[in-house]
Amino acid sequence: MKKQNIISLLAAFVVVISGTFVVAQQSGGVSALRPGEIDEVNYIDEVQKQDTSGRFSRNYRQQPPLIPHSIAQYQIDLNANQCLQCHDWTNAGDRGAPTLSMTHYLDREGNQLDAVAGTRWFCNQCHVPQANSPALVDNDFTPSSN
User: Fold this and answer.
1) Which residues are annotated as a binding site?
2) Cα separation of 37 and 54, whole Å?
3) Which phi and psi angles does 50 have, rounded to 5°?
4) Which residues are annotated as a binding site for heme c?
């Protein structure tokens, strides 16, 4: 009995999925990501390079600072965080790097820690490398003066 129910459920699923695909094809809503024919050569836009000429200014209060260097080969996982080799308060002075904010050394209850809090361990959750790339969409944002 259970086997028959599973087979019926799978058959219904296949019918629904194939029906959805047919409707999408007929409506003209599905298009290829490739702009030309399959045998045409695809030319891609110029790759935007990271701007290392200086630091970008922040656009709003409490905005996490942008990273002014490449982090392409940095290990940031549960076992290691290479950002801390330069930016931890114990190393930043010797390396000439900005020190992490003291908020990175507070736990959820606000207790001061000697090491970076687990909630702040993954730097690239908030911090991204700065790049001088064109905007994807128009933006008329102006930062607050307050």
Assistant:
1) 69, 83, 86-87, 104, 123, 126-127
2) 42
3) -70, 135
4) 69, 83, 86-87, 104, 123, 126-127
Segments making up each domain of the chain, as ranges = 66-132
Under 8 Å between Cβ of 87 and 97: yes
pLDDT per position as a tens digit, 125-139: 999 888 777 778 888
**CA dihedral angle for residue 97, residue 102, residue 107, residue 110, rounded to 10 degrees:** 180
Helices (H) and strands (E) in the chain, counts: 3, 0
Which one is the CATH code of 66-132: 1.10.3370.10, 2.60.200.30, 1.10.1130.10, 1.10.10.10? 1.10.1130.10
- Whether the model clears a pTM of 0.85, i.e. scores above it, the answer is no
For 123, counting Cβ atoms within 10 Å of its Cβ (0-12 exposed, 13-18 middle, 19+ buried), the class is buried
Phi/psi zone of residue 134: left (φ > 0), alpha (ψ -120 to 50 degrees), beta? Answer: beta
